[in-house]
Structures are given as C-alpha cells and as structure tokens.
Amino acid sequence: MRKDFLYWGSRLERWLLRAVVLCAVVLVAVQWFAYDPAVRVISQVDEGLTGGNGTSYAHLEHLVTFQLLDYSTLPKAAIMVNGEKKGCFTHRYVTVAVDDGAVLAIDARFYQQPVSVKVIETYGDVQWPPAGTVFAVHGTVREIGKVVVRGEREKQ
Predict the structure, then answer these.
(1) The model's pTM
(2) Where exactly are the structural domains of the chain?
(3) CA atoms of 79 and 82, how far apart (whole Å)
(4) Both ends of the chain: CA-CA distance in Å?
(5) Which segments of 51-92 are extended strands (E)?
(6) Using one digit for the tens of pLDDT, what is the confidence trace for 94-137?
C-alpha cells in the first residue's frame, strides 16, 4: 500500500509542476504582448492622428517634414501648427500634418543658442513652405507663415 501511495504522489507532483510551468509561460507571453514596444509606438501614432478636441486628422494628405540642422536632437524644440505643439525634435526629423491656411511656427524658447530647421520635403501638393527652406530661431517662437496647398484655394 505504501508503494502505491508514493506512485500517485509522484504523478501528482509531476502534473502540478507542469501546470506551474505552463502558467509561468502564459504569464510571460501575456506580459510580452501587453508591453510590446511596437504596440506602444502604434498606439502613440494613433493618438497623434486625433487632435485633443476629438477632430480626426487621419484623412489629411498634406504633410511637411522638417530636419533639425546642427544638432541631432533638441527635445524641447517643437513645431507648432495653429498654436498647438504638433511635433518635438526628440529625433532629428519631424513630420507634421497641415491643412491649407494653417500657421506654422518653431518654438525654441528653451534654447539660448540659434536653432536652424530645414524643410526637407512636402507631401500632398503643399506649395508653401517650399522644400529646402531654412529657418533660424534664436530663443523665441518664430512664426514661419501660412501653409499654401495647391488646388485648395480653387475648391473654396
């Protein structure tokens, strides 16, 4: 009888050990997918496509890409569209969605040294600002002008 008890006890121990290992694997997998860096980036992009007041900018096809010159990153420098901060120079390049008549500005208030920003490329018939234009800002917010989209003025 004693031999039979040890036999069932060892089998129960094996099954319990398998269940614990399986639960640990499932827990690690769930945490990996819940905190996956790619999912976080995708969710940030999705949040960036909707404005704070609930308006959706996902339909906009007009984009302007800026490059930070002389520096690789200036996280407190920003591109503002209609007075709202739409992109920060946490990386060297910033792309912002614009619409016809939107007022663009560069915010470099935090930095005392001159900050130069170049328009690298425009997408979706953006006529102004033209690609290749360089704007210099020195410790202030500089309004660089209104966006002009080719074809939008004739529609109105």
Answers:
(1) 0.59
(2) 55-155
(3) 10
(4) 94
(5) 63-69, 74-81, 84-89
(6) 888 888 889 999 999 988 889 999 999 888 888 888 889 999 99
